[in-house]
Design a protein that fits this description.
The complex is a heterodimer of chains A (227) and B (119).
Chain A lengths: L5 H11 L8 H14 L3 E7 L4 E7 L14 H5 L5 E3 L12 H4 L6 E8 L5 E9 L7 H58 L5 H25 L2
Antiparallel strand pairs in A: 1-2, 1-5, 3-4, 4-5
Helix pairs in contact in A: 2-5, 5-6
Chain B lengths: L3 E5 L3 H13 L3 E5 L5 H8 L3 E5 L7 H10 L8 E5 L4 H7 L4 E4 L4 H11 L2
Parallel strand pairs in B: 1-2, 1-3, 3-4, 4-5
Classes of the chains: A alpha+beta (227), B alpha/beta (119).
């Protein structure tokens, strides 16, 4: 994690709109594919958010496993620039202290690539895990980085989609707001015309029709622009 | 003694309509199109209630009401906000407004809310 840039990194994370707890098949496809491609039992997409870690998707990991924000595994990937490989966590000074390694979960092998945005912020990691130590070749590392790059392209597309939806929603709200001020004038003026002492029946009826039309326009705005 | 309503609204037609409607209801109405100097306006006019447009330029209705609530002379003054904002009820609670009117509104709604809250 880029020290001193945490508020900016969290703002960047918000722009991606990655929602905790929302199951999304596309992310699950990446973790499943990673397990199959690299022949590992576990893969996860972790997101680091304000000193805590949560999994956007995981494959082969019991849901009850609690991931703490502690150095050695995912938290270390987020503060690194490149792929982070630990072939045997028990022989790695930092990783050996991580509760996922020394606890009952017993991680031994770990490979993680930071989820780096085009602006240079690491949002989390894409990682592979095994409960037994194993080697990870240079070729594997290159392939895993390429897969992570594909994942980032997907996340980038989702971010762009969210941005377009958010912008359109704001435009619609502004439009609805701008229409409601003249509607207020139509409503009030038509009622005032009806209340005029010398208003003829024709004027009263026309004012009533204007008032009804105003209410219908308001209903259309609420239905089409706010829903 | 007639009660005084201070109306802030940047749409001059709505401002004039509110002034006409509330004047014919027996209130003295002061109408202003910006709330930049709300604390001094209130000190000078001494209104019994403020009707405030939420999206008024310069400091905006929300900030203006927060300023009022921070001032010992006006912290408990009745303030009714009016806006086309879809979340006006939540905003009203958040900024501790007395009540709210959603645009577009009709004459009886305006009169009803004002008479309910004017002290």
């Amino acid at each position: 994690m880029q020290k001193g840039f945490e508020p900016e990194r969290l703002s960047e994370l918000e722009r991606y709109g990655i929602i905790e707890g929302l199951e999304e098949e596309a992310y699950n496809a990446y973790t499943r594919l990673a397990c199959a491609l690299f022949d590992v039992p576990m893969a996860a997409i972790s997101i680091v958010e304000d000193n805590r870690i949560w999994l956007k998707s995981s494959h082969g990991i019991d849901e009850k496993v609690v991931i703490h924000y502690e150095p050695g595994l995912c938290a270390s990937v987020v503060s690194s620039e490149n792929i982070y490989i630990i072939e045997d966590a028990l022989t790695h000074e930092k990783a050996a202290q991580n509760s996922l390694v020394r606890g009952p979960f017993g991680v031994r092998f770990y490979a993680g690539v930071p989820l780096k945005t085009p602006s240079g912020f690491n949002l989390g990691s894409f990682c592979l895990m095994d409960k037994k130590a194993r080697s990870f070749s240079h070729e594997h590392a290159k392939q895993f980085m390429a897969l992570t790059s594909l994942l980032m392209h997907y996340m980038e597309m989702q971010k762009n989609k969210k941005q377009i939806v958010d912008e359109n929603s704001l435009k619609m709200k502004a439009l609805a707001h701008d229409l409601k001020n003249p509607l207020t004038i139509i409503t009030l003026q038509s009622e005032m015309l009806m209340d005029e002492n010398d208003a003829t029946d024709d004027i009263i009826e026309m004012s009533r029709q204007i008032s009804i039309a105003g209410r219908r326009i308001n209903e259309v705005i609420n239905k089409r622009l706010f829903s | 003694m007639e009660k005084c309503i201070l109306v802030y609204e940047d749409d001059l037609e709505i401002l004039q309509l509110c002034k006409t409607i509330l004047s014919t209801s027996g209130y003295r109405v002061e109408a202003l199109s910006n709330c930049e100097n709300i604390i001094s306006d209130v000190a000078k006019i001494k209104p019994d209630l403020i009707l405030m447009d939420l999206w008024i330029p310069q400091i905006g209705g929300e900030q203006a009401i927060l300023l009022l609530r921070d001032s010992p002379d006006s912290h408990d003054m009745p303030v009714v906000i009016f806006s086309a904002h879809e979340d006006i009820e939540a905003i009203s609670k958040r900024i501790n407004a007395t009540s709210f009117i959603k645009k577009p509104f009709d004459i009886s709604t305006l009169r009803g809310v004002i008479s309910e809250h004017v002290s």
